Amino acid sequence: MKRRSIIIVCALLCLAVFRPGQAKDKKEKEPLRLEIECATGAAGFGVEGRENTNLIFAWVYVEKADVSIDVIKEAAVRGILFRGYGEIRGCQGQSPLVATPNAEQQYADFFNAFFAPGGKYLEFATTLTTSLEVFKLSKKEYKVGMPVSVARGNLRKYLEAEGIVKKLDAGF
Amino acid sequence: MRKYMLLLCVIGACLSAFGQARKPTLMVVPGQGWCYKNNYKTTYDNQGVEASIPDYQRALLEDKDLRNVITQIGILMTDRGFPLQSLEATLNSLATEAAENELTRSASGEGLAESPLDALNRRAKADIRLEIEWSVEVSGFNQIVTYNLVGMDAYTNVQIAAALGVSAPSSSTPLPVLLKEAVNANMDNFNSQLQAHFDNMFANGREVIIDIRLFNGADFDLETEYDGYALSEIIEEWIDQNTVERRFSKVGGSENYLKFNQVRIPLFNASGRAIDAEGFVRELRRFLGRDPYNLPGKVQPKGLGQCVLILGDK
To answer: Phi first, then psi: what are they for B225, rounded to 5°?
Structure first.
């Protein structure tokens, strides 16, 4: 009886320490290694984009290639917010939407909620194809991505309303 | 009850007037180079030398692409809270006003009084001028659009924002679509620079130009001494004391004039009211109008960023 109790306690402790979801949580908290580039003017995309949107290729660097589309959308939105992209193939580069260098840390609570699973960021990104492009870079590294359209204008308005980004006419 | 409502309205109006800086006006105009290249210019004889000025009216009437580009920039700027002052509407209103003034006669047949300065002040002007230029290069079957948008402070002539882009070569996309794309693709970067300019303005004050002049009949000049100090020194000292972090440059002066540029004036005066170059110079005029100087002066504003104080009369 005593031994059984000890086994049960040990099993519970193990479960508490090694919860199946915890590894995933830890993984999600790791910063996303991402890259974005302009897709306007690329083969199959034409030279004109839609008003107030950015048409980009969003890439993530991961250990396993089975990445969900939401992760690509997150990379796309993060890229537009904090990185911007350079000029390529006659497509104009864009500066990051959030100009303050440490805004991600300054508004950590806001962005943690914004990029939470199923979060608000999903409303601003639309994938343009159904399949992911996968490149194997090494034994344990894949580059995975797809073209995404990010509603830059709506994203900016949302961030302005939340007080994260200053309005152009603020103070006037 | 009615009295309270009236009081509330007055308080509301005061609150809205305080705490908000004067909003600069923006206007898109075709660049001088683009106008000359497309032959939208008026040539005239300037004392024996042939001179040209851009003919905006004809450019707007004849160039559909120009209208489209201006409209597109207008749409995007309105979305950012800066509705543009329309060049076309301003030119039309000036023409209508001029025609009406010509026809207005009193019972005795006299026309409207208008000084040459009044006529000059009726020009189409805005605080920030967005100068747009583009050119189309043809390479084989493809055409490429080079697009250039420059934001100029109309008074200090300082470039405050710019966007330059070259479109991807295309054989099938029509020019208006390429131009629209060029505007869309460049406007956010342009606005980021405009934002940086506004941030700088809020932090370091509005940059203005101030001119001090004298009326011909004035019985003093800028070298006249008060308590051992020349009037020009007194004015310079006042500007030094009243600018943000004492930032200004004196670019010229004599016994008859003083010119200051890069004068960083605060956006609000001591009582919290938003001021521009005119408000700042009015304070200077009040200072010079008091003892021991008692100098009369006329304030002549030239928009938000430039003002002339003419001393010696009103």
So the answer is: -95, 140
With an 8 Å Cβ cutoff, are A90 and B22 in contact? no
Secondary structure of A1-69 as H, E, C letters = CHHHHHHHHHHHHHHHHCCHHHHHHHHHHCCCCEEEEECCCCCCCCCCCCCCCEEEEEEEEECCCCCCH
pTM: 0.76
Residues of chain B with C-beta less than 8 angstroms from the C-beta of A99: 192, 195-196
Q: Which of B142, B177, B202 is the last residue of a domain?
A: B202
Q: What is the pLDDT of residues B49-94, one digit of tens each?
A: 888 888 988 999 999 999 999 998 998 899 888 888 888 888 888 7
ipTM here:
0.72
- Write down the domain spans for chain A: 24-161
Average pLDDT over residues B254-267: 92
Q: Is B53 on the interface with A (CB under 8 A)?
A: no
Q: Indicate whether B257 belongs to any domain.
A: yes
The whole-angstrom distance between B23's CA and the closest CA on chain A is 5
| Of the candidates B23, B126, B137, B142, the residue with the CA atom closest to the CA atom of residue B70 | B126
Using the beta-carbon criterion (under 8 Å), do B167 and A90 form an inter-chain contact?
Answer: yes
Q: How confident is the model at residue A77 (pLDDT cuts 50, 70, 90)?
A: very high
- Token digits for A14? 């193990």
Confidence at residue B155, expressed as pLDDT on a 0 to 100 scale: 74
pLDDT of residue A128: 87
Structure tokens at B296: 């009369």
Q: Does residue B270 belong to any structural domain of this protein?
A: yes
Chain A residues whose CB is inside 8 A of the B185 CB are 40, 49, 91-92, 94
Q: Model confidence over A101-143: pLDDT tens digits?
A: 889 899 999 999 999 999 999 999 999 888 899 999 999 999 9
* Interchain CB contact of B188 with A (< 8 Å): yes
Number of domains in chain B: 2
Residue recorded with tokens 């008091």: B290
User: Best of A48, A80, A82, A165 to disrupt the B interface by mutation (most B CBs within 10 Å)?
Assistant: A48
Q: Does the distance separating the beta carbons of B189 and A93 come in below 8 Å? A: yes
Q: In which domain, by residue range, is B149 found?
A: 24-97+116-202
Same domain, residue pair B196 and B58 = yes
Query: Helices B64-79 and B175-204 meet at what angle, rounded to 10?
Result: 40
B217 and B273 inside one domain:
yes
Contact B185 A166 (CB under 8 A): no
